[in-house]
Specification:
Layout (H helix, E strand, L loop, with lengths): L2 H23 L3 H24 L4 H5 L3 H9 L6 H9 L1 H10 L14 E10 L2 E9 L5 E10 L5 E8 L4 E2 H12 L3 H6 L8 H15 L3 H10 L2 H4 L2 H13 L3 H14 L7 H8 L5 H15 L4 H13 L3 H14 L4 H13 L3 H15 L5 H4 L6 H4 L2 H9 L2
Helix pairs in contact: 4-7, 9-10, 9-12, 10-12, 12-13, 13-14, 14-15, 15-16, 16-17, 16-18, 17-18, 18-19
Length: about 400
């Protein structure tokens, strides 16, 4: 074999070995995806842990300020002077603006919110996380976060929906800026029709300003006198609920929620808010449907949702389903107080006295309830339980 041919063979062999070596260095797409999914999970979990310790820097730091400003401004017609003032004050107000829409509001416990990461899903550099916040009196809020990974595979918060507010963070801030000094063009853009007269537009503007300023009496007066096509506008319906909530007028808020239920009964973004209308009005079927829409929208497993479904099913006359949902809640989160309360009532309703006694034990032992016979006999529903062998045995073993 000639020297030239030997040299050529050696060169080809070397090139082949280099290609194989390079192929070994290229990461498998499945491994890349798995790594990114792990980054989303770890990043979201870290942020939630910090929130529970009231350490907010990681949450605020996960937001790209310029990207968020672009979302806030969008195509909204914001007065340029208002925009400049907003940007000039950002350095001292940015963190407060963000966290004020996460850790404050109606129903926040004195000890602060407790956050639970319910689920994270992702594909490539885009992800989503759902977080539950536990409020006072066994109420709950939910946040649905849009996420992405930056070039270093760190989690970035793109935006989020607050379900007790029924909208995204960027939408709320953007609307606030629009209404700070609304032009006629900006007001027209808030409507879903284009033939409003000058007089109607003026009335609509005054209505929006009343809502902006928290003047509930004036807002209600203007809303009730304006034409029906304005009354059913999404922004008017939403504003009626928010202004009553902001000034802490529950009766007016419930009335505004009734208007919301009339015009937008199927809107999942409003489902959590509408529970404050349905359940006090004993509209249990409507409340159940709202819970189901919210559950479908969130698309995660949640013990608190199961426990609330249990209570609603029991109130609507479905004790067997109520007991099944209570068991589901406790299977997902054994330490959930509402889960044990739902189990107590649902198990008692189906005559599962052994299960009811187990709930009594847990509620007294873990959550400091007094469920003595003197307490239980105040409610008629526990009569059969108190006559049962299981209850008698529980009393003997009770400290």
């Amino acid at each position: 074999m000639s020297t030239r041919i030997q040299s050529l063979i050696a060169s080809l062999l070397f090139a082949t070995l280099c290609v194989v070596a390079h192929a070994d260095e290229v990461e498998d797409p499945a491994e890349i995806e798995a790594r990114k999914q792990e980054a989303f999970q770890a990043g979201a979990a870290s942020i939630v842990d910090d929130l529970n310790y009231e350490f907010f820097d990681s949450f605020v730091g996960a937001i790209n300020q310029q990207d968020m400003l672009d979302r806030i401004y969008g195509l909204r017609l914001i007065d340029q002077r208002i925009k400049r003032q907003f940007e000039e004050n950002l350095e001292g107000s940015w963190a407060g603006l963000i966290m004020g829409r996460v850790v404050s509001g109606r129903g926040v416990p004195e000890e602060g919110l407790r956050f639970t990461l319910l689920g994270v899903e992702s594909r490539g550099d885009l992800g989503r996380a759902v977080i539950r916040a536990d409020l006072d009196n066994f109420q709950f809020n939910y946040f649905d976060f849009d996420l992405r990974l930056d070039q270093h595979e760190k989690v970035v918060i793109v935006d989020w929906i607050n379900f007790l507010d029924g909208r995204a963070f960027s939408q709320g801030v953007g609307l606030y800026l629009v209404l700070a000094q609304p032009s006629k063009s900006a007001l027209r853009k808030l409507l879903d029709f284009s033939n409003a007269s000058e007089r109607e537009l003026f009335q609509f503007g005054e209505l929006m300003k009343a809502g902006r300023d928290g003047n509930l009496a004036k807002f209600n007066e203007l809303r009730d006198s304006i034409q029906p096509r304005f009354q059913r506008q999404r922004i008017v319906v939403e504003s009626g609920v928010r202004v009553a909530k902001n000034v802490r007028r529950r009766r007016e808020m419930v009335a505004a929620l009734g208007i919301m239920a009339e015009h937008f009964p199927e809107e999942p973004l409003y489902s959590l808010m509408l529970l404050d209308h349905y359940f006090p009005q004993k509209k249990f079927e409507e409340g159940l449907a709202a819970l189901q829409r919210l559950r479908d929208k969130l698309d995660v497993e949640d013990a608190a949702m199961d426990a609330r479904m249990s209570a609603a099913l029991l109130a609507s006359g479905n004790p067997a389903e109520a007991a099944a949902y209570a068991d589901l809640a406790l299977g997902r989160e054994p330490g959930l107080e509402l889960g044990w309360l739902s189990a107590l009532n649902a198990r008692n309703a189906v005559g599962d006295f052994a299960g009811t006694v187990a709930a009594l034990t847990q509620l007294e032992g873990e959550f400091d309830y007094d469920l003595s016979p003197e307490t239980l006999e105040k409610s008629r529903v526990f009569g059969d339980l108190m006559q049962s062998e299981e209850f008698a045995a529980w009393l003997e073993s009770r400290p």
